[in-house]
Every structure is written in structure tokens, then in C-alpha cells.
Amino acid sequence: MLSSMCLASGPGFRLDAVTCVADHRGWSAPEVSDRYHVVLVRRGVFRRMTRGRAAVSDPTMAYVGVPGEEERFAHPAGGDVCTSLSLTPGLWRTLTAAMPLHDGTGRHTRSATPTAKATALTAPAFYVDARLDLAHRRLLRAARDGDIAFALPETMTLLLRAALTPPGSRDAARTSNTGRIVDTAREAFAADIQETATLTSLAAHLGVSPYQLSRAFTRELGVSLTHYRNRVRVGRALDRLEEGAPSLAELAADLGFADQAHLTRTIRHHVGHTPTALRHLLTTPTP
């Protein structure tokens, strides 16, 4: 069962919160859109098939869909909550003009025409680092504030820039073996199973060596396994801060950090802000 709630809309765009409570392992019927759409996951995990390739989507991996592209979905782990930003081709060209869009091979297409740049989006998924996660949350905040003339388009443009020029995107170069290792590990992190507590226990759970696991993350996502694990924990910290968590010491303990200082250092490294500053960014109403 799929439900969608419009958070904001304007000329050429629509921002929706999409909730899926489906629990099916098989692929859905094909879906085709006449718009571009950027989909970022708030909670849960699912799989998307497009152009003959499957990718796992969760809060650390999002995707861009293009007009006329056929998509199929599977939800072997249950439901999920996503943010879907859809744009008409005309608004897409306007907002992405002059952006150095990633072509999925590590090259950029700054000098290409809008049409060529659109077709250069070959990677079905891209890594969501903590800064892009924050841009996602600020977009939702702008939607709540209701300024569709300036604040919302501005945060939308910032999000698109972060999404379309992901620093660690290596998806087009993935191999089937390393891709499966990374996808399975990411699903384990998303489920927060006990085996994700250490490198050796996670490698044993996946049936690979620690070296294979570590190398797979660097090769597939362009970031280390440790960086990815901290990225997941920072995302959970942002959730708690957004909900108004009162104690940073308790938050650090709940998320497995050594202490509050360790939590603060890690969040500052990933997002560029302290937890105190993030509380203001995510919870204080705009004047």
C-alpha cells in the first residue's frame, strides 16, 4: 500500500512525502514518469530496478529518475518513508543549468548542453553523505515554513547541486561481487543488527574477509567502511536532534559513541556543524 502527501508545490515542481507499507520480495509492475524525480529515503530500505540494474535505497543511498524511464520496486524488508521531489523537464533544465553533473563514471558534464547533461545521469543511485542529508532536512523545513517563492526554491537548488555532484559516486564502475557485498552490508547497517558492531563480526556475517569488505566500500562508494558506519550513526543523530533530544551524552551512549565529545567531533566532521547548531537549524522556526 502506497500513500503520498503533498508537502509543497509550485510552478513546475512538487514535493511529496511518500509512505509505503508493502512487504513483498518480488518486483512491482513497471512505473514510468514524465518528470525528473529525486527520491531520498527518510526511513526504511527498498530495492529499485532500472535499466536492467538493481540498487538498494536507504537513508544513505538515493536516486534520480528521468522522464520515460521504467522503474520497478521491491520491499523485502517491509515499508519505508521517502521524500520525492519531482520537476518538469523545463524546471529541471533551469535549476541544473551550469551545474557540473556527474555522469556516473567520475567525469563531469559542466560544458554539456542541458539535453546531454540529462542523458548523462547514468548511475541509478548515488551516495547520500551527511551534508546532503542535512540539505534534505532543510528542504523539508523550508516546505513547512511555506515560502515557495524564495526559501523553498533556494534549498531545492542546493539539494540538487549536492545530489547531482556526489563526491563519492562510483556506481557505474561497480562489479557484481563488490556490489553485492556493499548492498548486503548496507542492509545490515539499516537493520542495526548486532553483527554490525565490529568489522570482523560484520565480515563473518557476510561470509567475506575484513579486507574484502573494506575494499568493497572504498571501491563502490568512494568512502571507507568506517566513514560509512559513522555516516549511518550521524543520520540517526540528526533524527534525534530533529525530534528535540535533550541530552547529548545520552544520545552519544545510545548510538555507540565513546562519549559526547566523540559524538560532537564526528557530527562536525560529517555535517560541518555542532549538535547545538544543528538543533537551531532543524527545530527553530524561521522568523
Enumerate the strands of the largest sheet in spatial order, edge to edge or round the barrel. 1-2-9-4-7-10
SSE topology string:
EEEEEEEEEHHEHHHHHHHHH
**How many beta-strand runs?**
10
Radius of gyration: 19 Å
Gross geometry: globular
Determine the strand fraction and express it as a percent band.
Answer: 15-25%
Determine the structural class based on helices, strands and strand pairing.
Answer: alpha+beta
Domain HTH araC/xylS-type: 183-281
Protein name: Helix-turn-helix transcriptional regulator
Organism: Nonomuraea salmonea
Keywords: DNA-binding, Transcription, Transcription regulation
Topology (SSEs and partners):
Blueprint: E1 2-10, E2 13-20, E3 31-32, E4 36-44, E5 46-50, E6 53-57, E7 61-65, E8 70-74, E9 80-87, H1 89-96, H2 114-119, E10 126-127, H3 130-145, H4 151-164, H5 176-191, H6 199-206, H7 210-221, H8 225-242, H9 248-254, H10 260-271, H11 275-283
Antiparallel strand pairs: 1-2, 2-9, 3-8, 4-7, 4-9, 5-6, 5-8, 7-10
Structure description:
This is Helix-turn-helix transcriptional regulator. It comes from Nonomuraea salmonea. InterPro entries: AraC_XylS_family_regulators, Homeodomain-like_sf, HTH_AraC, HTH_AraC-typ_CS. Residues 183-281 form the HTH araC/xylS-type domain. The protein is of the alpha+beta class. It is 44% helix and 20% strand. Strand 1 and strand 2 form a beta hairpin. Helix 5 (176-191) crosses helix 7.
